User: Which sequence fits this backbone?
């Protein structure tokens, strides 16, 4: 017996015209479901075919009224930058929760790019200072772009974008791509991470995740009133940035502690269970409130829940717009 599956390429997804605000809204809805205890989501499992490279499998089921399921298979390969290939690539499958049949297979590079920026945006909605004027992005690749996009959604008064990337061409490319979204903002290409973070209201690190992190962004360089977001696990911010923060938040407490317990990431000084203020489930379900003063720090690892919420939105939009290619399995 065969059945129909909707194949959605990156170009198909691009053509749907989804906005960062729409993705933030569904990611926030997913976090709220997690806070209500409606999410089944084991921590990522993976294989590692080369140093600092991963292939993860990320399943998630959201029960309750959402009733959504999916699995992502995703790779992250830092050496790809030099080969002109994407760091992040993969596929995401939408699964029918009633029958287990695959309903759709789609590009996971797009999903990962957008839902990760969106998760930072949702965190900033709850912990950011609405008067934020200066945002610093360290690592100006895909995530640098997406995270700035999300900050522009949350903070309408951004006047300055401070940039750092050791690869010389990245800052100019970043500014060319992002200036149209922030026409009034000044873009500053900084020579060092220290110069980049100086006086920034928000600092986001989007550098390659490595097994032996240098943690080269120091808490002492940050201003006291700052939102510090790590998209790259514990690669860039030093332990004090997180452990000495007024509040430390993750996207999923369970997954953060599981990852820490398994010994590679969040070691040597990163907060343990007692140092956690909240996870995004508790915040978005209204069980805890965000803070808006002092150094507020977060590690947003990226969880399968973000993919399910975003992938389902894409699927619904694609059906509505009759986009994609039906194939038979
Ligand atoms: N948390 C999540 O949900 C999530 C999701 C996707 C990607 N990521 C992670 O985000 C990071 C960036 O991913 P991407 O897709 O943007 O990759 P990318 O290759 O597009 O961009 C990485 C950028 O970092 C720069 N860089 C390298 N070393 C640096 C350093 N020491 N200081 C500053 N910049 C440096 C590179 O030149 C490049 O511009 C990776 O670690 C990736 O695993 C996290």
Assistant:
């Amino acid at each position: 017996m065969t059945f129909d599956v909707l194949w959605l390429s990156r170009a198909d997804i691009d053509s749907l015209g989804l906005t960062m605000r729409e993705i933030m809204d569904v990611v926030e809805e997913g976090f709220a479901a997690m806070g209500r205890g409606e999410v089944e989501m084991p921590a990522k499992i993976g294989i590692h075919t080369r140093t600092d490279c991963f292939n993860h499998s990320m399943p998630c089921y959201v029960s309750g009224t959402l009733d959504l399921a999916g699995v992502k298979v995703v790779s992250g390969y830092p050496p790809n930058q030099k080969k002109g290939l994407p760091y992040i690539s993969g596929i995401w499958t939408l699964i029918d929760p009633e029958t287990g049949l695959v309903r759709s297979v789609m590009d996971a590079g797009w999903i990962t790019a957008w839902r990760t920026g969106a998760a930072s945006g949702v965190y900033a909605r709850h912990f950011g200072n609405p008067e934020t004027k200066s945002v610093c992005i360290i690592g100006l690749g895909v995530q640098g772009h997406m995270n700035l996009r999300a900050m522009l959604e949350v903070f309408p008064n951004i006047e300055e974008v401070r940039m750092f990337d050791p690869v010389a061409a990245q800052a100019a490319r970043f500014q060319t791509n992002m200036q149209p979204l922030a026409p009034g903002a000044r873009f500053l290409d900084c020579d060092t991470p220290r110069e980049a973070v100086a006086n920034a209201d928000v600092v986001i690190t989007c550098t390659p995740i490595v097994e032996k992190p240098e943690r080269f962004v120091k808490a002492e360089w940050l201003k006291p009133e700052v939102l510090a977001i790590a998209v790259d696990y514990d690669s860039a911010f030093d332990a004090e940035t997180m452990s000495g923060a007024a509040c430390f938040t993750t996207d999923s407490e369970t997954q953060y502690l599981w990852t820490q317990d398994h010994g590679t990431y969040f070691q040597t000084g990163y907060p343990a269970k007692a140092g956690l203020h909240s996870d995004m489930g508790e915040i978005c379900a209204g069980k805890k409130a965000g803070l808006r003063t002092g150094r507020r720090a977060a590690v947003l690892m990226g969880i399968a829940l973000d993919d399910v919420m975003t992938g389902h939105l894409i699927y619904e939009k694609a059906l509505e717009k009759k986009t994609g290619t039906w194939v038979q399995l």
